[in-house]
Amino acid sequence: METERPDLGAMVMRLGRRLIAMEEPILARHGVTMWAYVVLTGLRDSPTRTQAALAQSIGADKTRLIPILDDLQKRGLIEREPDPADRRARLLGLTAAGTELHRAIQAEIRVAEAGLLKDVDGDAFVAALRALS
């Protein structure tokens, strides 16, 4: 075992910073912040959620999430409706425009990721990340 390599945490943090730096210009071209993209992804993965459930699943404070949701709703990218089971809660979902925007952003991110992974076995790397996370 190699003892002089950086710790996994240090390498993952550097990779995380590199990925964020790679994604930020893509998001900016689409007029979306990183947190807005995280919200769109969360709603894509689970289409109808309460604001509280979404906040918990993406690791965001629900009070800090409200301005992001307001902006996405104003732009016609998400819908917020009262929950019939609890009118104090709001159900969230992507609109067709939100789904289309998310797909466009993700397609560009995948192209950038492919460039990053060109010198490694990308499938094995992604499989290892899934297993470890």
UniProtKB/TrEMBL annotation:
Gene3D superfamilies: Winged helix-like DNA-binding domain superfamily/Winged helix DNA-binding domain (1.10.10.10). Pfam families: MarR_2 (PF12802). InterPro entries: HTH_MarR-typ, MarR/SlyA-like, WH-like_DNA-bd_sf, WH_DNA-bd_sf. Residues 5-133 form the HTH marR-type domain. This is Transcriptional regulator, MarR family protein.
